[in-house]
Amino acid sequence: MDIMHKRWCLNNYSFNPLVTSLMQTSCILAISHFFHLLLKPVGQPGPVAQVLAGAVLGPSSLSRIEDIREFFIQPTSAGYYQFFSHLFEIMFMFLIGLETDISFSNRNLSVASIIAYSGFILNCILGAALSPLFIKLLKIPDKKVEFAIVVMMILANSASPVVIRLVADLKLDTSDVGRLAATTSLVNEMSCVLIASLLYAVSSWESFSYLFLSFLLTGSLIALNRHLARWINKSDRESKYFDINYLKSIPTIVTIVVMILLNFGGKLVSTLAACHYLKIPLNEGVMFALILSLKGHFDLQLINVPPNSVAYCLFSSLLLQLWWNPGVRSVLLSIVVFDTIIAGIIVAFTVKREEKSLAHKQTSLELHDLESELRILACVYFPRHSLGALGLISALSGSKRAIVTPYLMHLVELPEKRKTNLLYHQLAEGDQYSDEDDYGGDDVVEINDAVDVFTSETKILINIVKVVSSSATLYEDVCTGAEDRRISIIFLPFHKHQRIDGNMEIDKEGIRTTNQRVLRHAPCSLGILVDRTVTGFQQPHCSNSVQHIAILFFGGPDDREALACSKWISSHPQVKLTLIRFLQVSEQISRNHNQDNEVMLAEPTNGTEHVIDNTSLVEFYNRYITSGQANYTEKHVSSGAETVTALRELRDSYSLFMVGRGGQRHSSITTLSDWEECPELGTVGDFLASSDFNTNASILVIQKHQHTTDNSFRGDY
After folding, report:
1. HSE value, Cβ hemisphere, 13 Å, CA-based, for 540
2. What family is reported (predicted)?
3. Which of 153, 148, 156, 146 is nearest to 202 (CA)?
4. N or C: at which end does the chain have fewer Cβ atoms within 10 angstroms?
5. What integer pLDDT is reported at residue 631 of this predicted model?
């Protein structure tokens, strides 16, 4: 029979099966992409479009046409389909492993486990209770216990690959809701795989021995390579399709409807109960329940176990051929498909409706809790910028309690016109790289090497992002990248760099233009670093010398934001922080007593800003200065000239000055000169960065994000 079948295949399918498989795969991808483009405007994610594309191409629809069926469903191509599906599944799971936020999963493992196991237990109970009904409706003759296990696992499982893909398509992968849903689905699916394996293994010694051997082999592979892709079972070529024609009978339809209702009902009740216990908002609980209702690869494995495979030996007690028939199989496949489509559509519309509540809210540091995650984005153009960016990341990551997630964005500016066939990162033959090059291919290597050295020394993991864009649109990529990653503060390099002789030299005027545009449109707080790495601020981690940092406080929202930023820096063991407050002597002064210490407070003669300033200072004083984590001093001045004198006295005492930009600050003590060379730094920042100040210290100027509807720029250049 095998010889006759092979001859029949050769006579009827004369094309090379590999070429045919590649053509078929290309057509499938094109149709899937077409569905994705069609459904994307209405908010539908990729998995929904791909499942619909498969249903349209399958035997239920277009493949009922003989020519289409002969092209897409050929026996000679089945082996190649198996190979490619296995290969792409490994690559997909490997990418999931690379993109998984391990630190977030570790911090929230208990919360994710409570949500995962509440749904798992309730759905297993519902599946076991109603399995007799399904057995009767589908007329299962034997192996009823195994069928009940399959029903329980299908109802209880949440497909982690599908969940992660859905969360990423909906741009929730950096939100707490999305990351918690992904972690919960991983816990749920791993539990389902483990428990299903144990239940089948205890039925016979042979199955148990295969299970033990599988665990031993898997543990050995993980020990050799942490990121080794997990072994994925192959699926039988005949188990890739289901024919909706089997779904016409009343008992079959009742079974499908009841199991779908059980899946959503069980997940909804259990997840809401767990979220109520964990004090998670109701709208997020509903979203968790819908996301965790998605089905995927493991469910298909339960339905389609290929013979003559390790999985078949592991699940040998099931012996699908004894009780499995096309009708039962189509019912279970239909449940998996419908669950995924329905859940995906509802989740997409729910996310769109809850867009405001799911939006990133931690767009500034003043009200940011020190123990909640701080996401920062440091931008660099050239390798020399990476030293200052890494120094800031090091300073902000000094506290053991603080949770800091840093991103490093490499900005590559494309020239407007270039009469050459070389790519943007290539140089002509004979050219050499230097500090004056506008772009160079080894910039990426040097920046990556610097990050690798930093990570190996500090154990701080940094996510590297590369952006290639024209000068006119580069700021849009920075702002969009910050918004997508839910960044709380962006750090930009100043458009000048320090030469070896200590003088400042302009890098590129385009950098300044980009900085100005980002200042205007930034979705969060922003800092501009005037880096003097040669003589100024150095990386605190692994440094033999203590870095002395001063916060210059004149008042206003930007200075309060700089003060808030210093909360993360003050806990670093290699940093000595000093808060220096400038007070106008004409103001009425009062004293706030705190045990043996006291801080001078200006009376709120000029409105609510003074009240907020005093409140922030008192809180900082009581928490950080009285505990010895920071020092406090005051400078009493009456004019801008006295402020300049006071600043000159400080210029050799610190390696980094932090100050607010002060775009809305109007005071006689901050009017330091008749004109400003760099208005984007503010009046004080411009003076500190100028040659008139003549300091070796670095300068960090911070602007607080203002929650305005038009996000308009504060001030003119």
Report:
1. 25
2. Belongs to the monovalent cation:proton antiporter 2 (CPA2) transporter (TC 2.A.37) family. CHX (TC 2.A.37.4) subfamily.
3. 146
4. N
5. 93
Give residue-wise pLDDT tens across range 548-607. Answer: 999 999 988 999 999 999 999 988 888 999 999 998 886 544 444 444 445 555 544 456
229 vs 244: CA distance, rounded Å: 34
Q: Which helix (H) or strand (E) holds 504?
A: strand 504-506
Taking the C-alpha atoms of residue 152 and residue 192, their distance in angstroms, rounded to an integer, is 9
Q: What is the pLDDT of residues 593-631, one digit of tens each?
A: 444 445 555 544 456 888 888 999 999 999 999 988 999
* CA 707/CA 189 separation, integer angstroms: 40
Residue 83: strand, helix, or coil:
helix
Angle among Cα 497, 498, 502 to the nearest 5 degrees reads 165
DSSP H or E stretch at residue 198: helix 176-201
DSSP 221-238: HHHH-TTPPPP-----GG
Three-state secondary structure of 114-167:
HHHHHHHHHHHHHHHHHHHHHHHHHCCCCCHHHHHHHHHHHHHCCCHHHHHHHH
Phi, psi of 637 (to 5 degrees): -135, 160
**Can you list the alpha helix ranges (DSSP code H) found in 532-591?**
557-570
Closest to 628 (Cα-Cα) out of 581, 596, 592, 668 = 596
Q: Are 393 and 406 in contact (CB under 8 A)?
A: yes
Backbone angles phi, psi at 154, to 5 degrees: -65, -40
Torsion of Cα atoms, 9 then 14 then 17 then 23, to 10°: -130
Structure-block tokens of residue 611: 């009240």
In eight-state DSSP terms, residue 316 is T
The pLDDT value given to residue 492: 95
For 223-237, 322-336, 475-489, which range has the lowest pLDDT when averaged over its residues?
Answer: 223-237
pLDDT over 90 at 233, yes or no: no
Six-digit token pair at 289? 């329940």
Q: Helix 109-138 and helix 326-353: axis angle, to 10°?
A: 140
Of 549, 537, 568, the C-alpha closest to 388 is 537
* φ/ψ bin of 400: left (φ > 0), alpha (ψ from -120 to 50), beta (otherwise): alpha
Q: To 10 degrees, what angle do helices 109-138 and 250-277 make?
A: 160
Residues sharing a CB contact under 8 Å with residue 583, sequence separation 6 or more, in sequence order: 589, 600, 602, 634, 635, 636, 637
pLDDT in the model for residue 228 = 40
Neighbouring-strand partners of residue 406: 376
DSSP string, 351-420: HHHTHHHHS----SSTT--TTSEEEEEEEESSHHHHHHHHHHHHHHT--SS-EEEEEEEEEEEEPS---S
What pLDDT sits at residue 237? 39
- Tokens standing for residue 681: 């730094």
Can you read off the two tokens belonging to residue 330?
């189509």
Please enumerate in sequence order all residues whose Cβ is within 8 A of that of 616, keeping only pairs 6 or more positions apart, or say none.
Answer: 366, 560, 563, 564
What's the Cα-to-Cα distance from 173 to each of 178, 394, 484, rounded to whole Å? 5, 25, 9
Residue-wise pLDDT for 530-546, tens only, equals 988 777 788 887 777 88
Per-residue tokens: 160: 């982690």
Cα angle for residues 602, 603, 608 (degrees, 5° grid)? 100
Is the pTM higher than 0.90? The answer reads no
CA dist list (Å): 385 to 234, 244, 353, 368, 498: 49, 60, 41, 27, 10
C-alpha distances out from residue 474 to 189, 478, 518, 531, Å: 41, 7, 9, 21
The answer to whether 462 and 451 have CB atoms below 8 angstroms apart is yes
